[in-house]
Amino acid sequence: ILVLLKLAIRRSLPLRDRIEIGEVIGDVMEKTILSTRICSVDNEIITIPNSSIINSNIKNYSAALRDLNQALILHTTITLGYDIPWRKVQKVLIEAARSTEDILDNPVPFVWPISLDDFYVSYQLKAYTNNPSKLGEIYAHLHQNILDKCNEAGIEIMSSHYSSIRDGNQNTIPAEYL
Q1: Residue 82 and residue 135 in contact, taking contact as beta carbons nearer than 8 Å
Q2: How far is CA 77 from CA 18, 40, 49, in A?
Q3: Region 77-84: what's the mean pLDDT?
Q4: How far is residue 84's CA from residue 42's CA, in Å, rounded to a whole number?
Q5: What is the pTM of this model?
Q6: Beta-bridge partners for 39
């Protein structure tokens, strides 16, 4: 049984791969018969018993690039009101992705409207990277670029649950973008 366990762990968790097991995201540092050590994105060294790993779902962010020679698809969701034309949203989100370091120009980023809710549309931006070890940094820069590009385009991002007394002329876009 230990040999099968070791074989299963070795195949699914190559050293230096960026993985997610439960709430732990990090890079595989070391594997032994009894445990696997991961360096988290916050440089915490976490030891996980292999008996726990064998019963867990494992996301391997590095495997598609290594095994299939395909880039990892990143995705993030934004909700915007029905008053904003979907073509404008699509253009702005793709511009935000293209201006983000480590997001590939090819394949081209794309946007899917994933739900039509009572007060807003949910849009999912999908973009590709060949650098899964920098996921946190890429997402942070992507979200900053989404905020900037939406502000530049006059798109107000706010929660659909946002409630305020407004005279109809004020919005939440920072003054420097108006």
Answers
A1: no
A2: 22, 24, 34
A3: 92
A4: 38
A5: 0.81
A6: 27, 45
